[in-house]
Design goal:
The protein is an alpha+beta fold. It folds into two domains: about 5-205, Beta-galactosidase, Chain A, domain 5, CATH 2.70.98; about 240-600, Alpha/alpha barrel (Glycosyltransferase). The protein has 13 helices and 30 strands. The strands form eight sheets. Strands 1-9-10-11-12-19-16-15-14 form a nine-stranded antiparallel sheet, with helices on one face. Strands 4, 5, 6, 7, 8, 13, 17 and 18 form an eight-stranded antiparallel sheet that branches. A hairpin with a 4-residue loop joins strand 26 (about 460) and strand 27 (about 465-470). The longest helix has 21 residues, at about 415-435. The relative contact order is 0.10. The model has no long low-confidence stretch (mean pLDDT about 95).
Length: about 600
């Protein structure tokens, strides 16, 4: 739980629950954001890829939501936390230190991971007095609220427009309107009741039929077993556990692909246009997570996701930058007529970056295979053949300009990070293949790796600043180069590596060890903020440089930037310190796990 209560009226600003004032519930199919004010203001059903039914986080007037809160919230303070080692969320409301209401939220999950429950179960509990709560279920269908048909029965309500249907099972009598259902109800003291939200049903049963207590028990068991099956030892283990649970919840079970975040268009700069849809699978992100899971002994999960990725790529016989998580959906980018979070327009769905070439993804994928194999994972001859195919493709394209991991929408360039990841692909494959005893054209791979390395040093290194630069011929640096020490491109004590990191410290690091990605113009009017993953890469650099005490200081400082649940978004606003960008963000949480593992290894704890 949060250490102390947050005043109810501080949770939202201008009608928007702050990004940081949310928890996430999820099920390996979809996820929902639950505000500390009891409002679910983002959820896509039946899966991550589908249009949201709750989306008021992107428009406080037009968007849909499902809210449960005390009817009178003067003098109310709120605490929020998870059931230990789960993604089951508990929100507590207090008046003068006395608890008056508790809401438990979950999307059901179980060991039968292929079984889908497109539901949200919400338990409300009262304490020493009767509690009057306000319930509002106002869904949106295809980014439009209102004009709904609401059918009431003795067991609840079915709300529909066209072929889109949702339902609420409840034993309480509520009012109806064309927007949905609402009303005040009284929870008798020391009792609890369930509200069950359902998607895609035409009728609603009595609330007891949905076996919410059983779903709660199954879901708690599922998440607890995920954590207890592994050993999270050492310092800061709580942060690693929360990150592992978050990452697992972002995988889409039927295909094994992972969304970069469960949300869309949460701004990287409030009031600006850096608003992207992250409900898709980036091969890079998924590969990074496979790498991180293998490092913390999630061998089975890492192997499964890796082979899932292989099947996805082989399906089309090419590596795409972004995939719809069900493999068949559209990636076409379009704008929605919403105001955006805190007035941040445009609100985008889909992602045009899917059409870009991002060469670093090839290196990221081979690097994931390397980490799985070197940590005892099963690398079959079939997977090894897949690696060889990836390197054949990379041999043809590594010297092509691309848009790199930052997905610049300016002209493609020869980005140093992309070239370094191409070099990594060949060198990792050589090491792994020889370790496993597989045959391969090692001499040719080594020649290609040597050519790439020589080119990077010749064209991507600036003698004047003693640092590698963003792209060939550039003078600017790039935060992505913080990863160079991890790749073994040059030894950590090489003056060119130290010079690169020191320059990034001078030019891109701000207070509290936060980093901008770059300073050059990327075509957007709103300045970029701190990209959180870079700070955790920096922790790994410090460990490699033998500065473990400094690394621990930085890691501890960074954890304080997470929200009350140790969840992180993509970026941090450099002026306000607020979490911004899509939330929670997978790459940030995998960065936490990598840095945690590196730090504990340095201290002999892991």
């Amino acid at each position: 739980m949060t250490r102390r209560g947050v005043p109810f009226h501080n949770i939202s600003v201008n009608g928007y629950t702050k990004i940081a004032n949310h928890g996430m519930i999820g099920s390996n199919r979809t996820a929902a954001l639950v505000g500390m004010d009891g409002k679910i203001d983002w959820a896509c059903f039946p899966s991550f890829k589908d249009n949201p039914v709750f989306d008021s986080i992107l428009d406080s007037q037009k968007g849909g939501y499902f809210s449960i809160k005390p009817a009178e919230n003067d003098d109310i303070t709120v605490r929020q936390g998870y059931f230990k080692n789960t993604n089951i969320l508990v929100t507590e409301f207090f008046r003068k230190k006395a608890k008056v209401l508790e809401i438990t939220d979950l999307i059901p999950a179980s060991e039968y991971t292929m079984v889908n429950f497109p539901e949200i179960h919400r338990r409300v509990a009262s304490f020493d007095d009767d509690t009057v709560i306000r319930v509002e279920l106002f869904p949106s269908f295809d980014f439009r609220s209102g004009n709904l048909t609401v059918v009431k029965s003795e067991d609840g309500y079915v709300l529909s427009r066209g072929d889109r249907k949702v339902a609420l099972s409840t034993s309480y009598d509520l009012n109806t309107s064309e927007r949905g259902v609402f009303g005040n109800v009284t929870i008798t003291k020391r009792t609890s009741s369930w509200f069950v939200f359902l998607h895609g049903v035409s009728t609603v049963n009595r609330v007891s039929d949905y076996r919410s207590d059983e779903r709660l028990s199954e879901t708690a068991k599922y998440w607890n077993e995920l954590v207890s099956a592994r050993k999270f030892r050492g310092i800061y283990s709580g942060a690693a556990v929360r990150s592992a649970l978050t990452l697992k919840a972002l995988f889409y079970e039927p295909t094994g692909l992972m969304v970069a975040a469960p949300t869309s268009s949460l701004p990287e700069c409030v009031g600006g246009e850096r608003n992207w849809d992250y409900r898709y699978a980036w091969i890079r992100d998924t590969a990074y997570v496979v790498e991180a899971l293998s490092m913390i002994e999630y061998k089975r999960e890492a192997i499964k996701f890796l082979y899932d990725i292989m099947q996805v790529v082989q399906r089309e016989r090419r590596l795409r930058t972004i995939y719809p998580i069900d493999l068949d959906g559209s990636l076409d980018e379009f704008e929605v007529d919403y105001d955006g979070y805190m007035g941040s327009k445009p609100v985008r769905m889909g992602n045009r970056a899917a059409k870009q070439l991002q060469i670093d993804e090839y290196g990221s994928l081979v690097n994931a295979v390397y980490f799985v194999g070197m940590n005892g994972g099963l690398i079959t001859s079939f997977l090894w053949h897949f690696v060889m195919q990836i390197l054949d493709d990379l041999t043809r394209i590594w010297d092509t300009p691309d848009s790199t991991l930052w997905e610049f929408r300016t002209e493609p360039r020869h980005y140093v990070y992309s070239k370094a990841m191409a070099w990594t692909a060949f060198t990792r494959a050589i090491t792994l293949g020889k370790f496993l005893g597989y045959s391969a054209p090692y001499e040719r791979w080594q020649q290609t790796a040597d050519t790439i390395k020589a080119q990077i040093i010749e064209k991507g290194y600036d003698r004047e600043s003693n640092s590698f630069v963003q792209y060939y011929g550039a003078k600017d640096t790039d935060g992505a180069l913080l990863r160079l020490p991890h790749l073994g491109f040059l030894p950590p004590d090489d003056p060119r590596i130290r010079g690169t990191v020191e320059r990034i410290e001078r030019e891109l690091m701000t207070g509290n060890y936060l980093f901008r990605r770059y300073l050059n113009d990327d075509g957007f009017r709103c300045q970029d903020n701190a990209f959180t993953l870079l700070s955790f890469w920096y922790v790994e650099d410090l460990v490699l440089f033998g500065k473990k005490e400094k690394a621990r200081e930085v890691f501890s400082s960074l954890l304080r930037h997470g929200n009350h649940l140790s969840l992180f978004s993509e970026e941090i606003d450099l002026k306000s310190g607020d979490l911004i960008g899509n939330f929670p963000q997978a790459m940030t949480h995998l960065g936490i796990i990598r840095a945690w593992k590196s730090l504990n290894r340095a201290y002999g704890k892991s």
